[in-house]
């Protein structure tokens, strides 16, 4: 009898975890992504407000529109959907031309700032996909210590002699981040098609 009670408790606990993970947690992550994208859009606006780029510039308009579409569709982005689109687009050699042409920006510093803002938006979107998918999150959590161990054993003398800095940790975890690059590109394609 106790075995059945334990099984029922386990099932209820798993059901509770699933309800939290696929309920309020999904909404909270989408809201956090939207808030971050709003902040990035504000930074883009600050560049235009300072007069360093015109609000009528095509690159500025395309960047702003891309961020707006990301904000609008943040709740619909999911890892399974993105992976499905990635495989379908690869099979059909489907490519979407990115309307964001930064060659239209004359000031090199402004161009770099806009690139940085757009890169932050893409990475935040890709990271939200990972955090919204329990399987992907478990994968990244499991791989992070392995990447750290690989870095330690690969160059143990230099690693142990130097202090661990944010830059060092970034270089260790960067191979994990490279996994997200195709996801970022797929998100960009999905956003471009959503604009239509």
How is this structure best summarized?
The chain has helices at 2-22, 24-49, 58-72, 79-91, 108-132, 134-154, 156-161, 166-178, 180-194. With 196 residues, the chain is an all-alpha fold.
How would you describe this structure to a colleague?
The chain has nine helices and no strands. The protein has 196 residues and is mainly alpha-helical. It has one domain. The longest helix is centred in the N-terminal third of the chain and has 26 residues, at 24-49. The termini are far apart. Keywords: Membrane, Transmembrane, Transmembrane helix. The chain crosses the membrane at residues 135-153.
Task: Please outline the helices and strands.
Elements: H1 2-22, H2 24-49, H3 58-72, H4 79-91, H5 108-132, H6 134-154, H7 156-161, H8 166-178, H9 180-194
Helix pairs in contact: 1-2, 2-3, 2-5, 3-5, 4-9, 5-6, 5-9, 6-8
Rg measurement, Å: 21 Å
Q: How do the SSEs run, as a string of H and E?
A: HHHHHHHHH
Give the number of DSSP strands. 0
Number of domains: 1
Coarse structural class: mainly alpha
Strand content: under 5%
Report helical residue fraction: over 70%
Shape: elongated
Count of individual helical segments: 9
- Taking the alpha carbons of the first and last residues, their distance comes to 60 Å
Unreliable stretches: none
Report the oligomer. Answer: single chain
Q: Please tell me the overall pLDDT.
A: 77
Main beta sheet strand tally, sense and closure: none
